Amino acid sequence: MAKHSMTRRIFLARVGVLGAAVGSGILVPATAHAGSAGPISFARNDPAGLPGLEDLVELLRPLLAELSRDTLNGLTTFVVPGRDAYSRAQGTPRNEPGALDAKATDFMIESLDNFVPFPQQLAQPMAAALTTALSDLGIDLPGPLDDLLPGQVKDLDDALRVLLENDATIPLSLVIALLLNLVATQVNPLSVHGAFVSPFARLSFEEKAKAFELMERTDSDLVALLDTQLPEPLRGSVSGLLKFVAGALIEFAGFGAFTEYAVFDPRTKKLRGTPVGWRLSKFDGVADGWNELKGYYQGRTKVED
Amino acid sequence: MRDVIVVGAGGGGPVVAKELAARGLDVLVLEAGPRHAKPREEWTHFENDANNPLSGFFRFGPENRDKPAWFREWAQNSFLWQLSGVGGTTQHYYGNCPRAYPGVFAGYDGADKAAYDTKHLFPFSYDELVPYYEWVEATLPVQTAAMGTKEEVYFGGCETLGIPVQTRKTTTGASYRPQENAILQPGGNAGKTSDPNLLQYPKATGCTFCGSCFQGCMEPINAPRNRFAKRSTDNSYVPMAITADVWAGGGKRATLVTDAFVTRVHTSQGNGEPVATGVTWRDNATGDEHREDARVVVLAGGCTETPRLWLNSGLPNPNDWVGRGYTDHFFDWVIGSFDDYTGNSKGVGSSARCDFPGYGGLENVGLPPAIQAFSALLSDSGIRGQYTNGRGMLGPWDGPAGRPMGPELKELLAGGIDNLLNVLVITDDHVEAQNRVTRSVLPADANGPVAKVQFHQRQRSAKTLANREYLARKAAELLRGAGAKKVYRIDWAPLILHVQSSMRMGQSAATSVLDSSAEARWVKRLFVADNSALANGLGGPNPTLTAQAVATRTSEKIFQRYFDGDPWVTNESPVESTDSRVSMELSKLGL
């Protein structure tokens, strides 16, 4: 296999796209068809259908959305774990509800994709950097991911590039998910395989913390590597922004999980139920006033100079 | 042609608008964000609805909440929590109105003189500002804060620190006290019930202890706008400015235009130097551009947007101090968890403080759940028990500084939001040229190149770093003294609030943008009236009152210098913003 192809295979595995493609059946490993006439790839090589790159891009789109959601599930449960599979997988199961019950992942995706005024002129080079910058760090790909044929990998790679480089709007949640997965596989190369779609979601709590340590460190090799792939004058800005992003992802996952987001009806401006975060923190809720006046310290209601 | 255009209706701009409208000048106020004229219809007390920095009604963005917020670049782990809209950042402040420490002004000769930011003093004396403090304190009005449980608990801790109670407006030494607040004291049923039927104005007046200062004040129910408890400028100075003809003899009501982003300040050459002549603003809804001319232009867009506007307008910057010296009180955050009820989520956001002149101060801060979680998670010391980012300081708190996260965050909050007490560390951070606003190289938005805000969290002056450590220890001691069973130090990453001095007035022409009148050194008829005009971080006290006192002083300078008028602050008595003539006129206007 050509070196480039190997590198791309590993990259696609590391950001979670390769595993997601196999998991969804878009790509089918050769071993899965042992005894058949030959390696069966996905539809692009199907002489009957002849769908081209554009079709693969369309197949890829929902897959990437799923990858984003899975990755951010791994993030929000990292900040506020609960009684869900992600919290169990990271080794911090809880008996009470957590981020997923509070729809913190929806909060993050909606915020990132609809409200962060992240310039596309920045999102696109960042995505391009993520898809081109990374060298082979010697991560083995045991199992079905290693069984894919170079042609399949190239097709997937081409589709991802088309999607990231040509789309009018790249969802910021996807850029974040790719970044988290990339760092996840740096912390634990084995996270390219396992339950869930996202390598990040497969990490233990301690490993997720290591991933954030890598992003927060001011001398992060990863940040520097991404930065050097960008044209001036964006170079310094992106590394600084990524440091900001690492902090902001944690802070806003926590903010979202403890707000009324999941049960707020914007039409009536009323709640449909008690927010998870209010139950978790025994918050009495909002009111126009409380019986809380205790008087004035030492009885003094006024001071003069 | 207008007499005066004020750019920005936040904490400072409406002060100039109100003062000069009261003198009969024709004043236009342009505000980039929404009006929020009917808070009971537009607002809720919910945290995401209000405070989501991207989509909340308190965000930095246009009126239409379906549109994205405006982008600013942060080049570090930090968060700049500012907002657009009438009232600006005072919409979510806690009304704290301490005066600056006298040591940060020219001419101070106390024994602790060397403890302050002596290279960046105000270019006038504390005594000169006192009449302006008094004027603003009477106008808002500023009153001694009432106590809730969280203040009782906080004072219990203060009583163990060995420092005295302060009973004056001016702070002269280490001490503690109730805040002097721009919050009307509770009257009638206020503070005694959660029954909305009993909280209808005038059965309740002043602060109802709703605990939602950060979500904007609309209490008591059905009170006139100028009698809402919290004296943010949307409730105080703006109502006065737009009704100036009814309460000031010879006054002329100011014109307020909202959702109008000023993109350029215009100048012409006069006597060999630039003179401000007006502005261009952009209607956020339509994108249409408008131009207005004026005899005087006053910039009050805040510490980030004022330098951006300056730089985008191509105004002179010969010493490169436009946008520099940006102070943020180098905050830190210390949380105590208690076995007993603390009332953390109820009452005014902060009603008690400690002052440590020469170091800064401490204040209690009450929070609802989401901001409480956010505050616990904003750290430069990594995740507690996992990594420290090379910090994770040890001290009289439990374990290393850092974020309590995952299971630990849940356990912290599971004890109950009302069993926590937060102490905000407000450091006397010295002006540093490296902390600054520049124009970002990232793509411009519809209003021009955006601001890039740079804060060097770890490379502050030795005195600033030492001040913060001193205060963090005091905060932990206070919480221990108050009975906390566990104390967390977060080591906040820059939470950029209390922003000051990015367009600073100063004694030295080499390190300041404004002269002692807050007029630009290099552009005549151009003044600055927001926190960016302040000369330094005030030694730690919250900046709003001082910015408003300086803006009042600036109003007199404008009136004397360009309208041949006389000063009034020492000769007249101020009208209180709760005045019934204002209320009646607002009612006529449907506001």
Automatic annotation (TrEMBL), chain A:
Top-level taxon of the source organism: Bacteria
InterPro entries xrefs: TAT_signal
Name of this chain's protein: Uncharacterized protein
TrEMBL record, chain B:
Highest rank taxon of the organism: Bacteria
InterPro entries, alphabetized: FAD/NAD-bd_sf, GMC_OxRdtase_N, GMC_OxRtase_C
Span of domain Glucose-methanol-choline oxidoreductase C-terminal: 496-551
Keywords on record: FAD, Flavoprotein, Oxidoreductase
Domain Glucose-methanol-choline oxidoreductase N-terminal residue range list: 204-330
Family: Belongs to the GMC oxidoreductase family.
The protein's name in its UniProt record: GMC family oxidoreductase N-terminal domain-containing protein
Species of the source: Tenggerimyces flavus
Source species taxonomy: Bacteria, Bacillati, Actinomycetota, Actinomycetes, Propionibacteriales
